[in-house]
Amino acid sequence: MSVVRDNAEPLAIVFEDDGLVPNNILPFLVYQAAVKLDSRQPEETIERLFEANGWGGTWRNGVFDYLHYHATVHEVLGVARGSARVRFGGDHGQELEIKAGDVAILPAGTGHQRIKASADFCVIGAYPPGAKMEVTRATPENHAKALKTIPNVARPPADPVTGKNGALMPLWR
C-alpha cells in the first residue's frame, strides 16, 4: 500500500540569489498533504518513504530558527507532526505554513528559517547519496564560497516522495 497520495504534485518556486543567500536555479518544491501518515508512527512512515527512494542520513528534529542553507547537498524535509511557518529563500523569499504530511525539497543553497512552530512540530530530514551536509550561515564570505560549490552538487537519483519517475526528475533536469 502506498503512503503517497494519488496525484501528488509539488508546488515549484525559484528563489533569486539575494547577495547573501545563493538559492538555486533549480526550483524549491513543496508537496502539500502528500504523505498518508500512520497516526501512531508518522516519523517512521516518512523515514521509510525517503529511504525507499534513495534519500538517507535521516534525522528527526525541527528547523533552525536562524537563516541558513546547505551549499554542498540537497535536502528534503517531511513534516511528521504539527506545523510550522518557515521562510524559504532567505529574507526576500517566501513564508510558507508546512504541516503534517507536507514535504519540502530544497535544492542546495536554498535559505530556510523557522519563524514559528507548534509545540509538537517534528520534521524528518534526509539527503541524496554521496554528499555531506554542512550548515552554512548567510554571510558575504559564505555566499562567495557557495557559488562555487552549488553548481557541483549532483542531481539526486530519485524524487524523495514519488521515486525515479517523480516530479523532481524533469523539474531538476
From TrEMBL:
Superkingdom of the source species: Bacteria
InterPro entries found in the cross-reference section: RmlC-like_jellyroll (IPR014710), RmlC_Cupin_sf (IPR011051), UCP019307_cupin (IPR014500), YjiB-like (IPR047121)
Chain segments carrying region Disordered: 153-173
SUPFAM superfamilies: RmlC-like cupins (SSF51182)
Gene3D superfamilies xrefs: Jelly Rolls (2.60.120.10)
PANTHER family xrefs: BLR7373 PROTEIN, CUPIN TYPE-1 DOMAIN-CONTAINING PROTEIN
Name of this chain's protein: Cupin domain-containing protein
Organism: Bradyrhizobium canariense
